[in-house]
Amino acid sequence: MTWLRALAAAVLSVIMPGAGHALIRDWLRAIVFAGLYFSAMLYFFPIELVADATTMTDAMEVLSAETDTISQFVLSFLVLFATIDATFRAAGFPPTGNRSSDGPSCPQCGKELDDDLEFCHWCTTRLEPVESDADAQARDETPQP
């Protein structure tokens, strides 16, 4: 399922940089990539001319005529970089340092688990319910027939 998650992160990042990172719950990177993309659009796109266009066809003609090669390269580079980064992070590369966290980790992928779920939200491995020490002691003290 990791490859499916990586593919979904890639597709979302192509549509909107930062959306793939939001899928894998990497919120800081999602905000950074979306902010960079919107900032670059505000800086490089002729927003006033596009707003004055009466139809979508006119707006696309204005964008293609008024946007130079460097602007297109910068925006394409941001989309490509966000897509590659989200894809590799969703696939588990580079390995994150979640193994040293204080919370429980998944026995299959080793990433940190959400206590409210009965499965790993990273690799979808079903988890057995964790038995607390008090429950185990009560079970041991109960007489067996």
TrEMBL record:
Name of the protein this chain belongs to: Zinc ribbon domain-containing protein
Membrane-spanning ranges: 6-24, 31-50
Sequence ranges assigned to domain DUF7575 in this UniProt record: 102-128
Highest taxon listed in the record's lineage: Archaea
InterPro entries per the UniProt record, alphabetical: DUF7575 (IPR055997)
Pfam families: DUF7575 (PF24460)
Keywords associated with the record: Membrane, Transmembrane, Transmembrane helix
